[in-house]
Design goal:
GO molecular function: ATP binding; protein serine/threonine kinase activity
Number of domains: 2
Radius of gyration: 20 Å
Enzyme class: transferase
CATH superfamily of the largest domain: Transferase(Phosphotransferase) domain 1
EC number: 2.7.11.1
CATH topology of the largest domain: Transferase(Phosphotransferase), domain 1
Strand order of the largest sheet: 1-2-3-5-4
Helix content: 25-40%
Distance between the termini: 26 Å
Number of strands: 10
Pfam families: Pkinase
Structural class: alpha+beta
Oligomer: single chain
Keywords: ATP-binding, Kinase, Nucleotide-binding, Transferase
CATH class of the largest domain: Mainly Alpha
Number of helices: 13
Length: 321
């Protein structure tokens, strides 16, 4: 975990700096926080507001890729417009002359939900004590509140998974990464979330590590709804409900319900395999029948058999906390 920065008195000085440079030059002390396949997240200091911020921009190798440019700009704009306690505030969006499109967010110290689940699966008692099953369900409820809000605004997240749920050091829960979000009523310039977008043959083996085995894994395939696997562009909020249901299964059982030996088997499991409820998968976790019922309804293969609205799923989760 990263410690929260203390307030610096000089940062509250009423005199604004002169000749503030444009673009990313406005931010100093840039240091890497995380990076993915196409983008990098860095912390930096804003000389105007006197606060530490998080800055996301594309990596040099993807900086001129039009698809990646559209994706990061969509993520920035969708995140900026979804003003909710469980989404991260966006302070600025720009196009730097050197580094291209970027956006600036509130920096929240903490870690993603998957890191917490990994430590619990390894039996680390300190984490188990801080994050018992009830707290883990509460974290997902908070993330789903952001989804209920986004659905009301016509936005489907399409990539709900523990890695995209940020748990702050002071109890904050933030749903991140709206880069593949679907906005109803607008042309969808994102490709369907199929295998070609998610992985390559060379990376399949290391990506399909288990929760207890550590390492990387195909975060998106493991949580995709059957309609996403089928490449259906007409998905609705029930797809996010499925993905959130898979996340709830994992949060309770510490097991991924649909994981296969490779991507193809994982997709086949999502579409066709009937899986046991969490209590049967992890009998040592003492998961209640009520929790089983909520999980299994959320991950029904037919959208019509799931919860029809995210608020209904949230209310059901509250009955098992």
């Amino acid at each position: 975990m990263i410690n929260e920065p203390t307030i610096i008195l000089s940062g509250t000085d009423p005199d604004l700096p002169q000749n503030v440079p444009p673009g990313l030059a406005r931010y100093s002390n840039l240091r890497e926080m995380a990076r993915g396949g196409s983008a990098i997240l860095r912390a930096g200091f804003d000389c105007i507001t006197g606060r530490t911020v998080a800055i996301k921009c594309l990596l040099p190798e993807t900086r001129h890729d039009r698809r990646e440019q559209r994706r990061i700009l969509r993520e920035a704009r969708v995140t900026a417009q979804l003003q909710h306690p469980n989404t991260v505030p966006v302070y600025d969006i720009g196009n730097d002359k050197v580094e291209g499109i970027y956006f600036v967010m509130k920096r929240i110290s903490g870690e993603n939900f998957f890191e917490i689940l990994k430590r619990i699966a390894r039996g680390e008692q300190d984490t188990i004590d801080v994050f018992p099953a009830q707290r883990r369900v509460e974290i997902l409820i908070n993330a789903c509140q952001a989804l209920a809000y986004s659905h009301a605004r016509g936005v489907i997240h399409r990539d709900v998974k523990p890695e995209n749920i940020w748990v702050g050091n002071f109890g904050e829960v933030i749903l991140l990464d709206w880069g593949v979000a679907k906005v109803w009523g607008q042309a969808d310039d994102n490709e369907p979330l199929n295998r070609s977008v998610l992985t390559t043959e060379e990376t399949e083996t290391q990506q399909l590590k288990t929760l207890t085995g550590g390492g990387q894994r195909p975060g998106t395939p493991l949580y995709m709804s059957p309609e996403q696997v089928n490449g259906n562009r007409g998905i609705d909020e029930r797809s996010d409900i499925f993905s959130a249901g898979v996340t709830l299964y994992e949060a309770l059982a510490l097991r991924e319900p649909f994981r296969g030996a490779d991507i193809n088997e994982t997709f086949d499991n999502i579409q066709n395999k009937e899986i046991p409820p969490p209590s049967e998968r992890s009998p040592d976790r003492k998961i209640s029948q009520a929790a089983d019922d909520v999980v299994m309804k959320a991950i029904q293969k037919r959208p019509a058999n799931r919860y029809q609205f995210m608020r209904d799923f949230i209310e059901a989760m509250r009955t098992i906390t």
